[in-house]
Amino acid sequence: MDNEQIKKYLTNKLTAQERNAFEQEMENDPFLMEAIEGLSMVNGEWSMDAINKVEEEVNSTIDMKVHEPKKGKVISLSFFRYAAAACIIGLLGFASFKLFFVSKQLNEEAIYASYFKPLTNPDATVRGENGLTAESQAIQAYEKEDYFEAVNAYQKLVSNNPDNVKNNLFLGISFLGTNQPKKAIEVLSKLTQSEAFHFDIKWYLALAYIKNKELQQAQLLLTNLAEQENYYKNDAQEILDKLDGKIASKE
Amino acid sequence: MSIKYTKHTDAELVELYQKDGNTIYAGELYKRYSLLVYGLSYKYLKHEEDAKDAVTEIFELILAKLKTHEVGFFKSWLFMVSKNHLIRKQAKNNSLEIIEIENISEKFMENEEDLSLNIREHESALLQEALSNLNDEQRTCIELFYYQQKPYQEVASMTGYDLNKVKSAIQNGKRNLKLLMEEKKQQHG
What we know:
The complex is a heterodimer. Chain A is an all-alpha fold. Helices cover 71% and strands 0% of the residues of chain A.
């Protein structure tokens, strides 16, 4: 279903048969159904001009992002602009402590964002089966990156079997996926003695600590991972190098 | 959409972007669904400017996530990524706790279930039997919509029901049909 067809539907440019075909597709496509609901809420009687304008606006912001200039571009300053630049430099210098603090916070976020990748579930199954078990529902939600649904499903599994390390681990990762590092820490910190998924648990717990700005806790786990042979060894060392100055300055 | 990329499938554009990180490929791909993302964003945020901002934010997410994620079917994946972002944004705007998500998830699951009703099964005797067990409202709407291929508005005019009632009768009818057919299969099996 492309944008042209959507616009024709919204502006009543389809025949009755075409409208029915479009609506049958909506019934089988929740994305299309919810989007049409939303678009109809914006305007109950779209004209082609109005919907084209919205499409143009939305697409132009995407184009701006696509063609955003790369960093490091050299800009030549006129004579008079030097004075303004000097003032700005002065202000920047005056506020340097504050800016340093803010950039540190951003760095923690950046480290977390560049290293967090969801762990592949070892029990991933074929999608679209009928009669899914609770576990396969959780796995499917997790695989589809629907972490809210995954949290919901894994919480049910864990409440039925609190000692299952794998389900606890994926619950923890799903909490991270929903931006809830404290809850991820709560779940994952109980698993650190487990032999199963030993390194995975430490890795995701370390990421949760970084996300939650508990850098010293993260450092302990990452040091442990960097000292042993495991999948995360190199990444752990890389993060330790990046965190080095930050942890020292917080102490 | 640039003419240059119209013949590329979604999967090909994903692959091109993942290979060299050129945002043009991701942009062309995303624009195929920009109206859908905007409509979905408005549904959750109920504010035109917020919805437009969300379209940009989701594109930024897509640019980052596509680099590290294997994407099977782009449109479904985009739907999930968009929905997760919008639910978070909506919860933040309304200062809601994440606990609210459980109910929302159940609603989505209902939609997923709807997908499994296979229209080809209309021909089967089993379906006819199940259809006869629906209430009048749901049966009439299902028959007009699927058998006689009438659009929602026409079904509404023919039955005298309002548009929302027609849509919910079709959705509920489909779900009930699925349940009834499962029951019948067990009885026959």
